[in-house]
Structure formats: C-alpha cells, structure tokens
Request: fold
Amino acid sequence: MNASSILGSLKKVVLTRQGAFLANLLYVPSLLFVPSLLFLVSACQTTSPEGGVPTNALSLVPTSSQTIQEPSATPSFAGQFLAARYAQQIQDNAAASSFFSNALRFGQADEVLLKYSFINHYQNGNLAEAIRLARDFERLNIDFGLAAEPAIAKAVQDEDWQALIALSEKIEVSDDFYLLAGGLRALAYIGLGEPETALGFLHELERFVEVSDSAQETVILLLGGYIFEYLENNEEAIRYFRQVLAKSQDEYIVLSAGAGLWRQGKSLQAENLWLTGLSADAAPLTLIAKMRANSSTASHAPQLNKIIAQFLFDTSWLSADSYHKNLTIARAHLAISISPDLDAAHMALAKWYLDANNISRAAMHLNKIDEDAPLSLQRRLLQLALAEETGKTADALASLKTELTPDNEVSGDQLATPIKIERSLLAHAGGDMWRRSGACIKALPFYQLALDYGLNSYRLYRSMGICFEQTEKHAQAEQALLTAIELNPNDAISLNYLGYWWADEGRHLKKAITLIKKAVRLQPRSGYYADSLGWVYYRQGAFDEAVEWLEKAIQLTPTDAIISEHLGDAYWQTGRLTEARFKWQHALDMGIEEARVPALQDKLANGL
Reply:
C-alpha cells in the first residue's frame, strides 16, 4: 500500500466516532506533547536509511518523494491533523504544511498545532504563511523564539535595523539562540552606522564561545571576517579568515574563508588553499582559472544583506548540534529571500529537492548558482546527476561531449591547468553515467577524454576496467584494474572486481584469493565481498571453506539471488543435496537474471 492509500484510510477512520476519539487522544498536549521546538522535532524521528543519524520533520535528507493526495472523504480537524502527522513521518513537508493549515481552519488554534504548522511552512520556504502564524503566537501570548525568524527577511529588505534588533530580542529565548540573536544585533548596528557598538557585540560573542566551548566558534569567526571586510579593515578581515582556517579544514570553511582571503588580495594563498586542501571535485577550478586571468566578476566584497543571509545559513550549516542543523533547509529558504545569490544555500536546497525527487525545484536552485562561484563545478556535477535521474542522460552527455572535445582553436595543451582538471572530472562523470546505464561502449570515449585532460585517478581506471571487461577487452580491463589497485591499494571495489572476475573464470586463483581477502578485510560487512571469497574457494575445490564464507555472505545480503545460487552449488558439493535444491529454488523465487534461469532449472532437475 502506498503513502496515498495509507493516508486515505487513516482519514476515513478518523471520520468515525472512534476515529475522532483516537485523533483527540493523539492531540492532548498535556499528555503527549511538550510545547517546545526540541520535542516537536524529535517527535517525528525515524531512522535514516543508512542507519545513522535519525531524520525528522526538519531533516536534511527527505525519505519520500511521493506527493500525498487529498482523499475524497469530507475533511475534518482530526483527519487533517492525522494526515499532517503522517506526512511529517514520511517527510513530505509540503503536504504536511497544507494539512496543518486545513486543520487550523477546522479546529481551535492550539499552541502545539500552531507550532507544527509554523515549522512546516518555514521548512518549505512559505515565509508569508509562517509570518502570519507568528502573529498568532503574539496574539495568543505564546513565547516561541523561532517564530521571529521569517520576519528577518522583511526587516533587512526594508533596512529597518531597529526592527531587526527587536526581532533578535524575541529570538533570544534561550542560550541555544544566543549566538544567532547576538550576531543579528551586531549586523543591525552595522546597518545603523554604529560599527563600534557592532564590534562590541561581536567580541562579546567571541568571549561567549570561548567560555562555553561552543561548537559554533567557526560561525563567529567567519562572521568577524565578513564584518571587518565590510568595514574595509582588511588586516582584521584577513586575521579572522586565517583564524577560522586554523580551527577547521571543513570543505565549506575552506571555500568560504579562501574566498574571503582572495577578495582581500591574497589570491595565491587562496588558490593554494583550494588546490591542496580540497578534493578535485570540490575545488573551485573555473574560479581559479579566472582569478589567474583576472576575468572573474565575483571579487567584490559582499553587501550587508548578503552577510546577514550568510550568517543565518552558517548558524545551521556549521552547527554541530542537531537542534540548529535540522533548521538548515528552513534557514536556506530564509537566506535566499534576503540574498538571492547565496550559492551555498541554493546548493543545499538543490540537493534537498533532488533527494526528494522534486526535479523542477532542484533545477531551479542549481540554475541560480553563478558560474564564477566556488561551487560551480559541484553545480555542474549535480546537474548531470539530475539529468540522469530524469532519464535525460543521452541529451546531457551529447552536449557535454561537444563542450569537452577540444577544437582547433582551444587545444588541450593550451588550457589552463584548473580548466583541464575540471574537464577531466566532467568527462569521468559523463563516462560513469553511460556505464551506469549499461552503455560501456559509449562510456569509454569519455574516459579517454578524462585521460587526455590529465586525470590520473584510481576511480577512473577502475571505471575503465569495468567497462573494458564488460566489452570483452580483457587485457585492457586487467591492466586498468591493476593500475587502479596500484594507485590505491585499499580500493576494495577494484580488489573484489578483479579477484571475482579471475575466480569466476578459474584464472589466477591464488592471486584472486589474495585480492578478495584484502577486500573482505577492508569491508567486513559486505555480503558481496564474502560471496566473492566463498566463490574463489569453490573454484579451488575447497568446498567446506566455500560453504563457510557463502553462508556468511547470505547472512549479510539475504536477498541476492546469485549468492543463493552459489551457496546451493557449495551445498551440493558437500553432500547437502536438499539444502542445495532449496537455495537454487530460492534464487529462482527472488528473480535471478533471465540468462541464468535455464541453468538453475537444470540444477534443480539433475543436480551438478
């Protein structure tokens, strides 16, 4: 049953007398709800698909791309409320916002319901509706510091700095929001033309994070750099940017502080920082090339509205605690309403909407990122991922190949090194897109382009090896995979791929088992690698060892048909004939690839 069907059934239930009673029970604030944001966030927690940090209504990773449809039953408060709560649990926040709004129309404006509704509207960037709900909090005399945040945009747009100070006082309802409120006050006094007062608040925040050992020290140091840059105190701006880099080498900080140093004339330091402190696919390669050519248009200092937007985003993006981290998407929406060219916020939203399968909104945010921005390469790579997600791989890669193929006027040797690196990474990404779609013949020319532009990556050689093997160019495949392993001896994927290939063909079995054992040591929780080890033992005739490892593999990956077939073969060789037939039948039942079906049916009928 899909999400829409479940939701429709829930709403029909709550229209009955018993359903209405259940809804009221779920909605008794004194029994089940604590009127605080912390509880509201934690109340919707589910475990993330990776088994890591729990996700919730304000999570950075949505778990459902389905849109919940309005059932045909007559709407009621109970139905709308339960529908909204269910929408929260499957992370369809747009639907939750709509259902909470409907619930407010049908029921009494309760504090908890108002908070749920506000959070969802804020999360989805519905700032006008969030501001309207904030007025309800004031009318009902409900203290809720978060409700003041959406109004920040209007205050900044109107340059109403006194209003921003007033909002900061409403936000500062607890120590959790002290840094956000203090930073906003400092920036408001910059707007009022009182820099000394602003710097007083900044230094007070620095003392606070030092005494409290706050995890948000990097946020305040970046803020200090931006403030001194705005005040044209270059020496202090450089000091703050260097100080934050000394505290953290986080990718976002390296990009942000590096850009700050570059704007202060420290272009060589910024370039070295980006090229040595970031992975190639995270470095702002186009920007570096334009910096060298003095042709970038992004070197001007940020205006005050952008600094405020940046600070709001940073308070969540750089936060180590889930309380503020879970507000990242909400504050990203708020930040771009203040400064539409805030690239980091657009990138966060693009990834969010791509994960939620909202392709149009993901594309919209990607298109807002400037080609000179430090995130331009990441934007291009994500645009390719978006094309792949929407089935437009062929069109996207035809255009990319034309762009990447050197013409008579611009040869590969004439390109600046950063542009070569960027083109090589894009070519590799294009090849991987063709490979994932099963078109290795089309992938190989892209990989060759990546080589021509100078990419010497174990991932590239691994991708090439896989495609050479799948196109039956065996000598080239072996050489590419061996090169990948030489470049990275701990590349478990290459170790396992080459080892399994050799084992499956009965070649180089001693070498194969050495490679696969290392892959298993590197990834002991992989059922596929355990299967490879079991299969190489099988090929060697060590059937007891094969059974041992194939049983481990089936425990780790119980739904893989190939592993089930392999275990059946090993059982047969050790005389466990009934168990062997059971595993073969299980492989058929799980839907093994069509080409293997006749052989499995023959095994079931005649054995090995």
User: Anything to note?
Assistant: The chain is about 70% helix and 0% strand. The chain has three domains: 3-148, 151-339, 518-608. Confidence is low (pLDDT under 50) at residues 1-72, 408-412. The first helix runs from residue 3 to 14.
